[in-house]
Amino acid sequence: MNAPVTLAHIKTACSTCNLRELCLPVGLKRDEVESLDELVYTRMKVKRGESLFRTGDDFASLYAIRVGFFKTRVATEDGRDQVTGFQMAGELIGIDGIVTDHHNCDAVALEDSEVCVIPYSKLEELSRKFEVLQHHFHKVMSREIVRDHGVMLLLGSMRAEERLAAFLLNLSQRFTARGYSSSDFILRMTREEIGSYLGLKLETVSRAFSKFQDDGLISVQQKHIRISDIAGLKKVMGQTGSTC
Amino acid sequence: MNAPVTLAHIKTACSTCNLRELCLPVGLKRDEVESLDELVYTRMKVKRGESLFRTGDDFASLYAIRVGFFKTRVATEDGRDQVTGFQMAGELIGIDGIVTDHHNCDAVALEDSEVCVIPYSKLEELSRKFEVLQHHFHKVMSREIVRDHGVMLLLGSMRAEERLAAFLLNLSQRFTARGYSSSDFILRMTREEIGSYLGLKLETVSRAFSKFQDDGLISVQQKHIRISDIAGLKKVMGQTGSTC
DNA sequence: CGCCAACTTGATGGCTGTCAAGTCAGGTGG
DNA sequence: CCACCTGACTTGACAGCCATCAAGTTGGCG
């Protein structure tokens, strides 16, 4: 009861975090999770609109999102940019920095957020000790690669409405995994950011939302989305169009 | 001279491989590279058109390309597919399989090829022993993620000619790194495969090649490409078009 | 109450997909 | 050695999807 447990320690313990079913500790046993506790020294708050890191920043840590919502984006010299992902609680960002020791994208908070700072050198060190952690970390990176390939498929071969349907279904599924409604949620990003992610202009995104609403698949009220016909959305995503 | 060195051993030693400046041993010291030798037990030949692995196959190994050229592709149930990359000598494929213990894409040889088989469990085991190997493997995965983000940028925000210019410049650079001509090479893939990778139809790819030739940037003779104006290609890639 | 960013909706145009016909190169068999 | 065949490629004509430009609406916030 009176054990010398500091507030800071409580605050940063993976073993007591309510995200442990989603975050790095996924699938680890109780004592293994406890070994992770020493991985996370600090937490950081990032206000909406602020960057957690930017392209070119020195890379030192990965970040596990504890609360909030981020987007990552890459840019070219000539001003073009592309949203490469939207990340929510329990997801890990910053892996892009390992290869060059500098970050290769920007991570921007889309709402007031909080992240666990995971010093990368510490993660490598613990990975050498704990096989399960090592394997889990490799899985996280592999999953990101597979996810990226899925986005390529979307960008390379789907039409506007198919892309948006896929996007909504993906969000829905991820909200479900976090215990939120799968059919009723608030978008944290603008039409323009959705468009950038999907390779579309904001007007096209807006039109597709309206179309889905007219077709009775969803109802849209600005950022508030309610999905009324999941099967219908899946059908939109699946239809190849004209080619037989 | 008469040391009992088996042919098999010679054949699979990273420490004597002429790709060691490109492959897993990149940046490792001599004795560290030697520790990799036990990582690679076998080599495999894959004939042109054959698959090294397919979606759904059990995952057990990564593959380092020793000779040849591959494409990887993902597909949806409804028949759509997308080439996610072209891999050449010294590059590592199969990472997509870690997350689910099953491969998540197909890897098809575009010419008669040879790969080193790297048992994944062995790689994890050695990674726990050798910090440098661990870090290097993480870098390989991180690089793949960063590369994928670049492809997303290409697919999401570039026009047909910009995409093809970027593609040619990327190939050129990778050939250079392997000691081949940067301006004169044979494409191993068809127009359709290039199109799939770039999110374009084969006719559009063909037209863009012809346009580049008319503009004096390259000369095209079926699969034989000669780049005559690298700077010109870079300019094509850089031009944002109309938006200012 | 007014301002502004975000969003919606309409009109128009262009890039690229689609369909079609023809060319080229390499390999096979007579 | 030549004719033929096939897959890959090129080129043209046309159409459709989505970008662009423009105007108006909504909702949040000072």
Give the beta-strand count of chain A: 11
Mean pLDDT of chain A: 91
Q: Beta-strand level of the residues of chain A, as a percent range?
A: 15-25%
Specify the CATH architecture of the largest domain in chain A.
Answer: Sandwich
The CATH superfamily of the largest domain in chain A is identified as Jelly Rolls
Topology order of chain A in helix (H) and strand (E) letters: HHEEEEEEEEHHHEHHEEH
Counting copies of identical and different chains, the oligomeric state is homodimer
SS field, number of helical segments of chain A: 8
Q: Any overview of this molecule?
A:
The structure is a homodimer of 244-residue chains. The first copy, chain A, is an alpha+beta fold and 244 residues long. Chain A folds into two domains: 3-130, Jelly Rolls (Sandwich), CATH 2.60.120; 158-237, Winged helix-like DNA-binding domain superfamily/Winged helix DNA-binding domain (Arc Repressor Mutant, subunit A). Chain A is built from eight helices and eleven strands. Chain A has helices at 7-11, 30-36, 120-129, 131-157, 160-177, 191-198, 202-214, 230-238; strands spanning 42-46, 51-53, 61-67, 69-75, 81-88, 92-93, 106-109, 113-119, 184-186, 218-221, 224-227. The first copy, chain A, has a four-stranded antiparallel beta sheet. A four-stranded antiparallel beta sheet of chain A has the order 2-7-4-5. In chain A, strand 10 and strand 11 form a beta hairpin. In chain A, helix 5 crosses helix 8. The longest helix of chain A has 27 residues, at 131-157. Chain A is globular, with a radius of gyration of 20 Å. Mean pLDDT of chain A is 91; it is low at 1-9. The structure holds a DNA duplex (30 and 30 nucleotides).
